[in-house]
Design brief:
By secondary structure, the chain is α/β, with parallel strands linked by helices. The chain is built from 13 helices and 6 strands. The chain folds into 2 domains: 179 residues, HAD superfamily/HAD-like (Rossmann fold), CATH 3.40.50; 76 residues, DNA polymerase, domain 1.
C-alpha cells in the first residue's frame, strides 16, 4: 500500500466515519462489481467456449466437446478466467501443435458467441438511470484487466455511465485487499460511510468492502460460484443487504437516505 493510500485509510479511521455507516450519513456513491453483477459473465464465457469447441471440432479437432471444455477450463483455472492465449495452450497440450486452421476457427466462433451472449442482467439500465437521476456517483470496481473491462463496458454502451472505473492495473492487487476499495473511494472523493458496494462474490466484494467500512449489498442473482458449490451455499453470506434483482437496490438506498 503506497503512502497516499495509507494516509487515506488513516483519515477514514481517525475521522470515525465507519461508526456512522447507514445512521448519520447520506449515501452518495454506489460501487459495482462488473462481472456477474452487471453482466452475466459466466454464461457469456460458457456460451463462447462451447461455440469455440464446436467450431474447432468441425475444423478437425479430434476430441469430444466435454473433453475439450474440461481441458480449457482447467487452463482457465490455472491462468485466470481472462487468459487470452487459452486456445493456443489448449491445442499445444492436447494435440502437440497449434494447428492454425483449428485455432482460427475457435477464435472466430468464440468472439461471435461472446458478443451475442454479453448482455446486462434484467433492470440494470433502469436501475443505473434511476441512481443517476437521484444524484448518486457511480463506480465500477473490477478485478478484470483494464482493457477487457472497458471493452465490456463499451460493448454494452455503459462507457459514459460511471464516474469512476477501477481495474486490476490501477492498484496491482485484487479484492478483497483494501487498496482497490480505497482507490475507488479516493477517486470518487467519497468516505466509506457514504458508499455502497454491490457485488456477487462474498469473499472478495463483501469482505473487502466491509473491512474498511463500506456498506455491502450481496447480488445473490449473480453468484454463480455459490450456485454450483454446495459447501458455499451452506455458509452465511456476511453482507448488510441481499438482493435477488438489481432494482431492489433502489429501495435500500431510499430507506438509508430517508433515515439519514
Amino acid at each position: 500500500m503506497d503512502l497516499q493510500t495509507c494516509e487515506l485509510a488513516d483519515y477514514f479511521q481517525n475521522s470515525q466515519l465507519i461508526d456512522n455507516i447507514g445512521k448519520n450519513q447520506l449515501i452518495k456513491a454506489v460501487i459495482f462489481d462488473l462481472d456477474n453483477t452487471l453482466v452475466d459473465f459466466m454464461k457469456m464465457k460458457d456460451d463462447a467456449v462451447n461455440a469455440a469447441v464446436k467450431a474447432m471440432i468441425d475444423a478437425g479437432l479430434r476430441l469430444t466437446i466435454d473433453q475439450a471444455k474440461d481441458e480449457i477450463y482447467r487452463i482457465y483455472q490455472e491462468e485466470g478466467i481472462e487468459f487470452q492465449e487459452v486456445f493456443d495452450r489448449f491445442l499445444l497440450q492436447s494435440c502437440g501443435e497449434i494447428n492454425p486452421k483449428i485455432l482460427a476457427a475457435g477464435i472466430v466462433a468464440y468472439r461471435k458467441a461472446r458478443e451475442a451472449a454479453l448482455v446486462l442482467y434484467p433492470h440494470v439500465n433502469l436501475t443505473l438511470f434511476e441512481l443517476i437521476k437521484r444524484g448518486l456517483k457511480l463506480a465500477v470496481l473490477s478485478d478484470a484487466p483494464c482493457k477487457q473491462a472497458w471493452l465490456r463496458l463499451c460493448y454494452l454502451n455503459l462507457q459514459h455511465t460511471f464516474d469512476v472505473v477501477v481495474t486490476y492495473e490501477d492498484t496491482g492487487v485484487r479484492k478483497p485487499a483494501p487498496e482497490p476499495f480505497l482507490k475507488v473511494l479516493e477517486l470518487l472523493k467519497t468516505a466509506p460511510g457514504e458508499a455502497l458496494m454491490v457485488g456477487d462474490w462474498p469473499e472478495r466484494d463483501m469482505t473487502g468492502a466491509s473491512q474498511i467500512g463500506i456498506l455491502t449489498v450481496y447480488a445473490k442473482y449473480g453468484d454463480t460460484y455459490s450456485r454450483y458449490n454446495a459447501a458455499q451455499l451452506q455458509q452465511e453470506v456476511n453482507a448488510d443487504y441481499t438482493i435477488e434483482d438489481i432494482s431492489e437496490l433502489l429501495d435500500i438506498l431510499d430507506d438509508l437516505n430517508e433515515a439519514s
